[in-house]
Amino acid sequence: MARPVGILGGTFDPVHNAHLAIAGAALRELGLQQVLWLPTGAPAYREAPVAAAAHRLGMLRLAIVGEPRYAIDERELQPGASGFTYESLKALKEKDKKANYILLMGADQYAKRDSWHRWQELEKLCEIAVVARPGTKLDAKAKTLSMTPMPVSASDIRARLARGEDVAAMLPAPVLGYIKEKGLYI
């Protein structure tokens, strides 16, 4: 049987070191053949990302360079895409019925999963692996990744950049270079 594929979704506004740490831990601990990064567009159910999709995609591409087991699925960035994880995973499963997917998420999202679109059906399409988040108790029936929570969030990075603070330790250097070059989050 083929090794599973991890799915890591989010706005990646911007992608940061905690995202990369989650993907790396999932590769190691879950024996994944690949982590499929699934950036979301601007879904109606949440606040729109600050950076345009093209910028978020550009930063994500820079962040994953050099890791052949990382790939990006752009389906949620397409015009008219729902942005619902259920819809994306359903389409992936329809494309390859034998594929085994593991959805990677933070404990904060896992704790409020019952508010997600078609959550119970989503759990039938894939396994779930949860990573601890600062300030969130990890009480998951799902698989857990033994990763120390990292106090890094995209909203904090955006706020620090807007204040002119140094965020070099929170982002891959090429991503920070892109942000500065494009004048994002200031």
Note down, in words, how this protein is organized.
By secondary structure, this protein is of the alpha/beta class. It has one domain (about 5-150): HUPs (Rossmann fold, 3-Layer(aba) Sandwich). It has seven helices and six strands; from the N terminus they run βαβαβαβααββαα. The chain has a six-stranded parallel β-sheet. The radius of gyration is 16 Å and the shape is globular. About 35% of the residues are buried. The mean pLDDT is about 90.
Largest beta-sheet details: 6 strands, parallel
Q: Structural class from helices and strands?
A: alpha/beta
Total domains: 1
* Tally of DSSP helical segments: 7
Question: What strand order characterises the main sheet?
Answer: 3-2-1-4-5-6
Beta-strand content bin: 15-25%
What is the CATH class name?
Alpha Beta
Mean pLDDT: 90
Percentage of residues assigned to helices: 25-40%
Whole-angstrom Rg: 16 Å
Distance between the termini: 48 Å
- Spatial shape: globular
Under CATH, the topology can be stated as Rossmann fold
CATH architecture: 3-Layer(aba) Sandwich
Unreliable segments of 5+ consecutive residues: none
What is the number of beta strands? 6
Along the chain, the helix and strand elements come as EHEHEHEHHEEHH
> In the CATH hierarchy, what is the superfamily?
HUPs
Give a brief rundown of this model.
With 186 residues, the chain is α/β, with parallel strands linked by helices. The protein has helices at 17-30, 53-64, 85-95, 107-111, 119-125, 154-162, 173-182; strands spanning 5-10, 34-39, 70-72, 101-106, 127-131, 143-145. The radius of gyration is 16 Å and the shape is globular.
